Automatic annotation (TrEMBL):
<dbReference type="GO" id="GO:0006493">
    <property type="term" value="P:protein O-linked glycosylation"/>
</dbReference>
<dbReference type="Pfam" id="PF01762">
    <property type="entry name" value="Galactosyl_T"/>
</dbReference>
<feature type="transmembrane region" description="Helical">
    <location>
        <begin position="12"/>
        <end position="29"/>
    </location>
</feature>
<dbReference type="GO" id="GO:0000139">
    <property type="term" value="C:Golgi membrane"/>
</dbReference>
<keyword id="KW-0333">Golgi apparatus</keyword>
<keyword id="KW-1133">Transmembrane helix</keyword>
<keyword id="KW-0472">Membrane</keyword>
<keyword id="KW-0812">Transmembrane</keyword>
<keyword id="KW-0808">Transferase</keyword>
<protein>
    <recommendedName>
        <fullName>Hexosyltransferase</fullName>
        <ecNumber>2.4.1.-</ecNumber>
    </recommendedName>
</protein>
<dbReference type="GO" id="GO:0016758">
    <property type="term" value="F:hexosyltransferase activity"/>
</dbReference>
<dbReference type="InterPro" id="IPR002659">
    <property type="entry name" value="Glyco_trans_31"/>
</dbReference>
<keyword id="KW-0325">Glycoprotein</keyword>
<keyword id="KW-0328">Glycosyltransferase</keyword>
<keyword id="KW-0735">Signal-anchor</keyword>
<comment type="similarity">
    <text>Belongs to the glycosyltransferase 31 family.</text>
</comment>
Length: 427
């Protein structure tokens, strides 16, 4: 009889252990998102970041529709919404933002992608002041009169922007003979904007993301083909300017004007080169979180030089008559960068009052951003001049990568994303 209590106690103890383990496992499974929330809060506290309200999936803009942006909106105007300028209703955002959270692989994958996005946002670096240009600050003061009155005639005018959104407008500068490049982009990383879900996701991001290919004057033999392409995909905008390297800044200025006029409620505008691949889900998560912490910014990969030098000869050569200084303001590489919706207005105004310089990235993300007092933000997850490992795109470590030389490389990258098999680290 003396052994019974001891046996009973041992058995009870084992039973309690089993029950506790089962309960712990069950609660851990049920509360994976709560654990993620605690991890997020700990990370935010360590980085001095204030989290948004947990009940908001995406920044909910005001329901009032924005008017078409005027060219004379100045950087200091008080009425510019410091948040995302959009006319999207609360119900619309609730429905649309839910689509990005519906991942076929379950909550664990969602929280992992969220955590990676938060880590990326927490690593953002604001540009320091351009102190080395202190003696030349007067050059970057916007001129009183308009010096660039660009008002191109739109030869093809598709406008995918509705009164509600989009959250992200992607602008891809292109040329008439690159129809196969555009086809490859539509079939791969941009396909969620055309109704196809990203691999691993249940739904596309068609209402969140719109894509526009921006072209100059086409050759006579390509004109009819381009019109048919525009009618088929509704994603072509063509202006009456020449498509040359020296006109890249002019072309991007036209993009700013078009975006401000025909897509004023876009939450963000992303410029992407044709040879650049975009991890669209990761980008959306990053911009969703970034919208809580910053406004009036341009985001991308900073130029390698702390004082970017001006090249006077060759393809990138700029004469002293056009730009008399020996260095540019710090700027972002032009492969891919994102402009917040409220900064589009400021950059557009600045482009009308600042002399044009041919190098598009140094002009838009350096000179105009500095003159318009737009925050320049660096992230090493964007494309840069060097060659990157494509496995980092598959594993959600990079937002964009560049140097995809032809449509075949896009298709090969897309196949690896679909199979999650990094068989070719370098394309």
């Amino acid at each position: 009889m003396r052994g019974l209590p001891r046996i009973f106690t041992r058995q009870s103890f084992l039973l309690v252990q089993v029950v506790v383990c089962v309960l712990v496992f069950f609660m851990a499974y049920r509360n994976s998102t709560k654990r993620y929330k605690r991890e997020v809060e700990d990370l935010c506290r360590s980085r001095n970041i204030t989290l948004p309200r947990p009940d908001v999936a995406f920044p909910v803009p005001k329901t009032k529709k924005n008017p078409v942006v005027s060219a004379e909106i100045k950087p200091g105007d008080k009425h510019i919404n410091p948040r995302i300028p959009s006319g999207i209703s609360d119900n619309h955002w609730s429905n649309v933002s839910h689509s990005i959270a519906q991942n076929d692989t379950g909550d664990r994958e969602n929280t992992n992608l969220n955590m990676k996005a938060l880590t990326i946002v927490a690593s953002f670096q604001n540009f320091p002041p351009d102190d080395y240009l202190a003696r030349s600050e007067s050059f970057f003061v916007l001129r009183d009169s308009v010096v660039n009155d660009l008002d191109p005639r739109w030869l093809i005018q598709n406008s995918p922007c509705l009164s509600e959104g989009p959250f992200l407008l992607v602008v891809v500068p292109s040329v008439d003979e690159h129809a196969q490049h555009r086809k490859a982009i539509r079939a791969t990383w941009a396909s969620p904007a055309y109704g196809q879900p990203w691999p691993g996701f249940a739904r596309p991001f068609k209402e969140l993301v719109k894509v526009v290919f921006f072209l100059g004057v086409a050759s006579v033999e390509k004109r009819k083909d381009l019109i048919r392409e525009a009618e088929l995909h509704d994603d072509i905008v063509q202006g009456d300017f020449s498509d040359t390297y020296q006109n890249l800044s002019l072309k991007m200025t036209a993009v700013l004007r078009w975006s401000a006029t025909y897509c004023p409620s876009a939450g963000h505008v992303m410029k992407v080169d044709e040879d650049t691949f975009v991890n669209l889900p990761l980008l959306l998560y990053v911009l969703k979180l970034s919208s809580y912490f910053r406004s009036n910014y341009v985001l991308g990969y900073k130029h390698a030089h702390a004082q970017p030098p001006v090249v006077r000869a060759g393809k990138w050569g700029v004469s002293k008559e056009i730009y008399p200084l020996s260095t540019y303001p710090r700027y972002l590489y032009g492969h891919s960068y994102v402009i917040s919706g409220d900064a589009i207005q400021r950059l557009y105004h600045a482009s009308r009052h600042m002399p044009l310089v041919p190098n598009e990235d140094s002009y838009v993300t350096g000179m105009l951003a500095k003159s318009a007092e737009v925050l320049r933000v660096h992230s090493d997850k964007f494309a840069y001049a060097g060659k990157a490992n494509t496995c980092d795109l598959i594993n959600n470590k990079d937002i964009t990568q560049t140097h995809f030389k032809n449509p075949t490389a896009f298709l090969a990258m897309w196949e690896m994303i679909q199979t999650r098999n990094c068989s070719r680290p370098f394309l």
